[in-house]
TrEMBL record:
GO terms for cellular component: bacterial nucleoid. Residues 2-510 form the RecF/RecN/SMC N-terminal domain. GO terms for biological process: DNA recombination; DNA repair; SOS response. This is DNA repair protein RecN. It comes from Flavobacterium humi. Pfam families: SMC_N. May be involved in recombinational repair of damaged DNA. InterPro entries: DNA_recomb/repair_RecN, P-loop_NTPase, RecF/RecN/SMC_N.
Length: 550
């Protein structure tokens, strides 16, 4: 319940602080006195958007703070889920800065507007005049019926299954699109992969093949130069090896004379050993050298295949071609995995559908059971409110598709008088009838809903006299189960309150301000008398006011 409200620098309010009881509180005041300002301030606390026009003094920040007693409403889980500190007396504060920025806090923890709006759904129902038209809304009608049916567990289970179902359907749609895309590419990818596989590529083979090709393609030239090198190296009289042997023999004779000569001798010996090895290698290369036109052609063909593949795939090495080969292979494997995944998802969706249909059928069954209970309670209250012949019908039709609340389409039909046909509520009910029906609905819901506070903003539009008395009685009965506020222009309703507040304007210096005052018993008499007869209060009006209060 709302236990206190503090407003600073908002619209026509400079500063206001007020405490409230847990019963029926009445708020009255002349048109334009500031009742809508109070509702606007509460709206900001509950997460509505704000702008600089909300500030009375554009140089100062606006602060609105509301204290709620919430220990009876099992909201600990909500606070935990949103990482907020839970307090039995929870404080919600909204600040609007002169810069236009807005901040919100729950128990001094910063929150965004979405979190604030979600919390407000558990705390307060502000019923303004235009919201009476919600009765014509199918979604609202379903909420009324579900409250009476009392199957929130089924609705939660349905919502969870629907979430799984939608998630699986979304993923399936994505996979089917991917499959279609892959199918278009699959034949071409298969061709490219087969082309690469048939080339039997190996890492490093390109350079090896190019080396072999160069040798085979230049056999005569290579042989000519190898033979010349061997001849120079091994000629008996003037060959390099023979000359090196003679140099070595000469240095050997003087090696013992000086370390310098010995060093030269050792170096020449090493050169002779190395060159002798080179000569042997030249001999082996010359012997291995064979003119093989067939092998040359095979090597050339393989190289041309590699060059062609590199050009097609715009790469420069066999290693890059092998990477492309692996990638294509992976895509083809993915197509197979994709089909398997699609089949699993289709099975999951089929299972979800079965569960959803079962829960939806139970929800429909519960709604059908709740219909006569709800109609009975509403018509009983409407009979008290001067509509003894009011009749209702709920038409519940099955749907093929899934909605957020089940597989039902609901229409609320209404007849106000005997002998008249049923019609859609929004088309056949007058404004006064809609107000009374809405009050009846709220009164019924008070027995099923855990909402702590409701504010009726002139729900009495279009009624007067004895009906107003009855509306006041119903609100008073509701206040036995929840905190009720009624903003009214009717003295019959105003007299029913446990507390009575008056909103009024006053002139302070050069500015107009709105104020809210808790009326004493004598002040209530005067206020209600004024509501009865206007500013010129007669004795009869005062007596009538006292009678209403008693």
């Amino acid at each position: 319940m709302l236990i206190s409200l503090s407003i600073k620098n908002f619209a026509l309010i400079e500063q206001l602080e007020m405490n409230f009881s847990d019963q029926l509180s009445i708020i009255t005041g002349e048109t334009g006195a500031g009742k809508s300002i109070l509702l606007g301030a509460l709206g900001l606390v509950l997460g509505k958007r704000a702008d600089l026009t909300s500030l009375k003094d554009k140089e100062q920040k606006c602060v609105i703070e509301a204290h709620f007693q919430i220990n009876k409403y099992n909201l600990q889980a909500f606070f935990e889920d949103n990482d907020l500190d839970y307090e039995d007396t929870t404080i919600i504060r909204r600040e609007i800065l002169p810069s236009g920025k807005s901040r919100a806090f729950v128990n001094d923890s910063p929150v965004n507007l979405t979190e604030l709006q979600d919390l407000s759904d558990f705390l307060l129902d502000i019923h303004s005049q235009h919201q009476t038209q919600e009765l014509s809304n199918e979604e609202y009608q379903i909420r009324i019926l579900d409250a009476v049916a009392g199957h929130q567990d089924n609705l939660d289970a349905y919502e969870l299954q629907l979430s799984h179902y939608k998630s699986a359907k979304s993923e399936l749609k994505k996979l089917l699109a991917e499959k279609e895309s892959l199918a278009k590419e699959q034949d071409y990818n298969s061709f490219l992969l087969e082309e690469l596989l048939s080339a039997h590529l190996k890492p490093g083979e390109q350079s090896e093949l190019e080396s072999v090709f160069e040798k085979l393609n230049n056999v005569e030239f290579i042989k000519e130069n190898l033979d010349k090198s061997l001849a120079i190296s091994n000629e008996e009289q003037m060959g390099i090896i023979q000359n090196l042997k003679e140099v070595k023999a000469s240095l050997q004779k003087i090696a013992n004379i000086s370390p310098d000569f010995n060093g030269l001798f050792e170096r020449v010996s090493s050169v002779l050993i190395e060159f002798d090895d080179i000569s042997n290698e030249l001999q082996q290369q010359a012997e291995k050298l064979v003119n093989d036109p067939e092998k040359l052609e095979l090597v050339n063909q393989k190289l041309q295949v590699i060059y062609s593949l590199q050009k097609k795939h715009q790469v420069d090495s066999v290693e890059e071609l092998l990477e492309i080969q692996n990638d294509l292979d992976g895509k083809l494997v993915l197509a197979g995995d994709l089909e398997s995944h699609i089949q699993r998802l289709e099975g999951q969706i089929s299972e979800n559908t079965g569960k959803l249909d079962a829960i939806a059928a139970e929800i429909t069954q519960n709604r059908n059971k709740a219909v006569p209970v709800l109609i009975g309670k509403i018509t009983e209250i409407l009979s008290q409110l001067g509509m003894p012949n009011a009749r209702f019908q709920f038409e519940i039709k099955p749907l093929e598709n899934y909605t957020p609340t089940g597989k039902d389409e609901i229409q609320l039909l209404f007849s106000a008088n005997k002998g008249t046909d049923f019609g859609l509520l929004k088309k056949v009910a007058s404004g006064g009838e809609m107000s009374r029906i809405m009050l009846a609905v709220k009164a019924v819901l008070a027995n099923y809903s855990k909402l702590p506070t409701i504010i009726f903003d002139e729900i009495d539009t279009g009624v007067s006299g004895e009906i107003a008395h009855k509306m006041g009685d119903i609100m008073k009965q509701m206040s036995g189960q929840m905190q009720v506020f009624a903003i009214t222009h009717l003295p019959q309703i105003a007299a029913k309150g446990h507390q009575h507040y008056k909103v009024f304007k006053s002139i302070q210096g050069e500015t107009t301000v709105s104020e809210l005052k808790l009326l004493s018993q004598n002040e209530r008499v005067v206020e209600i008398a004024e509501m009865l007869s206007g500013k010129d209060i007669s004795d009869s009006a005062l007596n009538h006011a006292k009678a209403l209060l008693n």
